[in-house]
Amino acid sequence: ASGYYSHAEGKDTIASGDYSHTEGYSTTASGIFSHAEGSYTEATGDYSHAEGYYSYATGNSSHAENGGTASGNNSHAEGSSTASGNFSHAEGFNTTASGENSHAGGNLSVVASASSFVHASSSNVNSVNSAILGGSTNKIRSNNINTAIIGGSSNEIIGDTGNNNGNRVIIGGEKHFIDSYGTGRTDDNIVIV
Q1: How confident is the model at residue 160 (pLDDT cuts 50, 70, 90)?
Q2: pLDDT the model gives residue 164
Q3: What's the mean pLDDT when you consider all of the chain?
Q4: Cα–Cα dist 128/141, whole Å
């Protein structure tokens, strides 16, 4: 315990941040007011907290648990997930929330845009203020805004690189898409199956 007013307990623990606290086995708390507990956890961001097993809280005021990595400031990661966007939340199995204020949950899903949400299996959201709820292998590509896919599988909303398209919804079904490229385009902005 080398940090000013720090406290280390357990085996192979390091509390080097001022006012930090470590406990368990092979844990490190190097951020100011950080806390690491469990096994092989690291709380390197100021005011961060890492707990469980192989968890990393590197963003300031971040929280990582049970194999998660919280590298965005004020982020939260749980399970084997990564929350790299500021104010983001990732949970489930191998999910990534890299957009600011984003949420990723489920299994192998990614949110790469701000203020967006995915809770599905193997799905991706790459547009602002967009969401995928349920289903699997659904995608919302970039240059869409305020779009959603609810359930189903292999559905996709494609955006035009020159325009910000939006207000589109696919509900259920399989292999439906909405695009704006002009070829193979569906004329409907809402597909319900």
Answers
A1: low
A2: 59
A3: 91
A4: 10
Task: Pull the structure tokens for residue 87.
Answer: 């104010």
Give yes or no for residue 37 having a pLDDT over 80: yes
Rounded Cα distance between 169 and 158, Å, is: 12
Q: Give the β-pairing of 165-166 and 89-90.
A: unpaired
Q: Which of 20-29, 85-94, 175-184 has the lowest mean pLDDT?
A: 175-184
Q: Report the pLDDT averaged over residues 63-68.
A: 97
R_g over Cα of the chain: 20
Run of H or E residues at 156: strand 156-157
pLDDT surpassing 80 at residue 177 = yes
Beta bridge partners of residue 8, listed in sequence order: 22
DSSP string, the chain: --STT-EE-SBS-EE-STT-EE-SBS-EE-STT-EE-SBS-EE-STT-EEESBS-EE-STT-EEETT-EE-STT-EEESEEEE-STT-EE-SEEEEE-STT-EEEEES-EE-STT-EEEEES-EE-SBT-EEEEEES-EE-SSEES-EEES-BS-EE---TTS-EE--EEES-BS-EE--SSSS--S-SEEE-
Reading the block at residue 115, the tokens are 């203020």
